[in-house]
């Protein structure tokens, strides 16, 4: 069983609200430290702290840790998570509720530290807010004679899209359902060797939804980590999302990756999406479409 996972975390906002980022320093018991810095779009510093906390709790769970020690220099968030203060900011409440849900799955201890003791996480968050996060490392391709099932990759690249169509006066986007409809997401998938991200996005959309879509422009990319227990490997995943107008609907059969495929208005899709980082991508797509139609 993995030991205690110590996580120093912080959020930063340039403008409060303004461009924001999160920084995490993971120190597993008996293992090397790992730094994470990610831009999260527009947020206040308090909301960014909660986003950092959610990232930490999701990562701890995915890594198989049940005992987690959280270190933050945000005294209000620490009091709120211990039930000593109310969450008054309406935009922070859903983040707080999700964090509380995750703490019920883990043994979490919250620790208030000084800003000086949290400097490393603070610097990572500030760099992310300024858009100075380092580029992801290149994919470590296996030797040609290494069997596919035995490969180890430090980084995985995927591509997907916000596929949209006009229906009457409304714009609708395509989402896929997984886990029996418990999770709704943007369609995406792995980039194959020798394939560009754009080619992968078009192929994955066709395979997962049965719809043919074209590339209009890149929206953004997201980063996250996941742990694959079968080979005990931590992967860093980079997903590039494109704005993709529908070319032809239901041109062929779809694979079994998705349990369902549906079209939703932008507002419905935002409420239905299960992942915060994909909600951010959809918001960016909406801004691009609004500017195009203006």
How do the helices and strands line up, and which of them pair or pack?
Blueprint: E1 5-13, E2 18-28, E3 34-43, H1 45-62, E4 67-72, H2 75-81, H3 93-103, E5 107-112, H4 119-129, E6 155-167, E7 170-178, E8 183-185, E9 188-190, H5 197-209, E10 212-213, E11 217-228, E12 233-248, E13 260-265, H6 266-272, H7 276-293
Parallel strand pairs: 1-4, 4-5, 6-12
Antiparallel strand pairs: 1-2, 2-3, 6-7, 6-9, 7-8, 7-13, 10-12, 11-12
What best-fitting shape do the alpha-carbon axes yield? globular
List SSEs in N-to-C order: EEEHEHHEHEEEEHEEEEHH
CATH architecture of the largest domain: Alpha-Beta Complex
Output the number of helix runs: 7
CATH class descriptor name of the largest domain:
Alpha Beta
- Straight-line N-to-C gap: 56 Å
Structural classification: alpha+beta
* Share in β-strands: 35-45%
Q: Which blocks of ≥5 consecutive residues have pLDDT under 50?
A: 134-153
The radius of gyration over CA amounts to 20 Å
Helix percent reads 25-40%
Mean pLDDT: 85
The tally of beta strands, per DSSP, is 13
CATH structural fold name of the largest domain: Nucleoside Triphosphate Pyrophosphohydrolase
Number of domains as seen in the coordinates: 2
In words, what does this structure look like?
This protein is an alpha+beta fold and 294 residues long. It contains seven helices and 13 strands. Strand 6 and strand 7 form a beta hairpin. Helix 1 (45-62) packs parallel to helix 3 (93-103) and helix 6 (266-272) packs antiparallel against helix 7. It is globular.
